[in-house]
Amino acid sequence: MTIFRPTLLTPLLSLASALLLTACHSGQGHGQPGVPGEDQGTQPFTAIAPDDTLHFVGTEPFWGGEASGGMLTYSTPGNPDGTRIPVKRFGGRNGLGLSGMLDGDTFDMTVTPGTCSDGMSDRRYPFTVTLNIGGDIREGCGWTDSRPATEPQAL
Fold first, then answer.
1. Is 6 helix (H, G, I), strand (E, B) or coil?
2. 115 DSSP assignment
3. Which terms are listed as keywords in the entry (predicted)?
């Protein structure tokens, strides 16, 4: 997983992420991710409840952590215990957004459903994670206790 440092692309990616989460959809559910069953076109994403613990991980550079309620812990190899930050939570129609501040920089994480690979193991994760820390874009994977990663099959 790679860090990008584009100057014009960063604001556009942030805007695209926000639009992905908040895009308007008229009419009754048309297969949009979100709440299973009822009107999927107008209901917010609920696959990760506020009291669920979301775990996330990324490589190149290595990073990870977990979030639950209004708090998030972000860790790196240089800070294995992590830094705890308060975050605001936003359930869009196609994912979850978590926003806060980390060491004076904006911290915006978007979590969407979709099979994800960490590129280092054969594990498969149920969520993709896009992280923007002060303009540095990172990609990773996520899981919860109720929607865990799947381990590789033994031969």
1. coil
2. E
3. Signal
